[in-house]
Amino acid sequence: MTTSDNPIAVMDATCALCSWGARMIHHLDCSGEIRIAPIQSETGARLMRLHGLDPRDPDTWLFIEEGTVWRDFDALIRVGQRSGGLGYLFAGLKVLPRPVRDWFYQRIARNRYAMFGRGDMCALPDPAFRARLLS
């Protein structure tokens, strides 16, 4: 499988909240198709630059599927829709108008280390989870 064949979530591997999100993708995506590209990886940094974002300032979360790119809360909503089950709960974010969602996301993203701490999704021992990670 190549990265272009699978949906890809691009997120900060050093953020505890993002690490939790990566684990949720692993648990909710029963198809096993969604790959995870840490922004700190070569693939993640390349995808960020490709979409006009600075990988050294990882405040943005991307979800790329069949050539379509979703950002921030819209990325979370799309992952939830695609994963189904409990993932549909993220669709509830759609009730907020986009400017409110964007404002709320930016507040969380800018303060994520202070609010949730740091983590390392690449250090997680689950071999099935590690198989989803792109380098």
Record keyword descriptors for this entry.
alpha+beta; four-stranded mixed sheet; 5 helices; globular; 4 strands; single chain
Q: Can you walk through the features of this model?
A:
The chain has one domain. Helices cover 44% and strands 12% of the residues. The chain has 5 helices and 4 strands. Strands 2-1-3-4 form a 4-stranded mixed sheet, with helices on both faces. The longest helix is centred in the last third of the chain and has 19 residues, at 98-116. The model has no long low-confidence stretch (mean pLDDT 87).
Q: What's this, in brief?
A:
By secondary structure, the protein is an alpha+beta fold. The chain contains five helices and four strands.
The count of helical stretches stands at 5
* Alpha carbon gap, first and last residue: 14 Å
| Unreliable parts | none
Q: Structurally, how many domains make up the residues? A: 1
General form: globular
- Percent helix among the residues? 40-55%
What share of the residues does DSSP label as strand, in percent? 5-15%
Structural class by sheet pairing and helices: alpha+beta
Mean pLDDT: 87
What is the ordering of alpha helices and beta strands?
A: EHEHEEHHH
Strand order of the largest sheet: 2-1-3-4
The value of Rg in angstroms is: 14 Å
Count all strands and give the number.
4
Largest sheet: 4 strands, mixed
Helix/strand layout:
Elements: E1 8-11, H1 16-28, E2 35-38, H2 42-50, E3 62-65, E4 68-71, H3 72-83, H4 98-116, H5 127-132
Parallel strand pairs: 1-2
Antiparallel strand pairs: 1-3, 3-4
